[in-house]
Amino acid sequence: MNSNQSKIKKAKKYLDKNYCIGVPTETVYGLAANSYVNLAVKKIFNLKKRPKNNPLIVHYSDINSLKKDCLINDNFIKLYKKFSPGPITYILKIKKDSKISKFVTNNKKNLAVRFPKHSLFKSLLKKLDYPLAAPSANITTKVSAVEAKDVKEEFGNKIKFILDGGKCLIGIESTIINLVGKPTILRLGGLDISNIEKVLGFKIKVKINPKKKLAPGQSCLHYSPGIPLKMNAKNAKVDQAFLLIKKRKISLDNYYYLSKKNDLNEAAHNLYSCLRKIKKKGYKSIVVEKISKKGLGKAINDRLSRASQF
Ligand code: TXA
Ligand code: MG
User: Are 24 and 163 in contact (CB under 8 A)?
Assistant: First the structure.
């Protein structure tokens, strides 16, 4: 048995016993448990200190396993064929005879579902006879985890196992699209909306900051490094961490590069680890250089602007 197989076997052992474990995805690490078992799902909410009315995303290996729990529609099939597995989460109607625990959605009738691309997580899902509920593996409102050591930092010994799959490739959470009724984007994320619009053939409504919150993750205070953060800065004081996306002529100790060549994919990949690093260094505040809103830049700006509400 190679080391990946033995890690997956261990992960399965804990999940079968209704424990929560850390899992790697291509976006961010998840805190996973059996979505069919009330007790297991409740543990996720407790560990994350998550309000009960903030529903969880359920992760499936493929469309066939999903069909047991959700009603699918044409828009879903088009997007699934093109983008899954990948960084997109779909909101669908739950079937009456689904086994999903009512705690996953707080009794609501719509379910968020996702097909993760990370090979270790995919192999794990194939071995299980239940899908996994998994929110991002961080304490509520804090910065998401992109490495196994970040998950450890968040939960310490409170979780028994982390399936270590290296650093997350994308580094920012999935894009969420509500497919019940008229398609609507509820969260900007790892898949740029223009790609989704090309496949659906029409412009999609974006409702990421509605007055009436549709997804509690739309709340303003979110993704916070725990210190004040200011965006679109030209300069930083010496006691402020300066988050940059383009290489400067001179580099100072308080400069932290998301990218040195204005590469937005690289910046997303480094965003959460940079914020963690800065917090650990003991800086009292962060200022961020202006970041373009092209491609993943939209999601990066969204996260930074929520973090800046601290
Ligand atoms: O990339 C990701 O999506 C990661 C990885 C682990 O899959 N997961 C993630 O989960 O970001 P979480 O729980 O941190 O964020 C999920 C967001 C929350 O804002 C939640 O309110 C929203 O999805 N959500 C979940 N179920 C929903 C539903 N039925 N209707 C509307 N929004 C929902
Ligand atoms: Mg989260």
Answer: yes
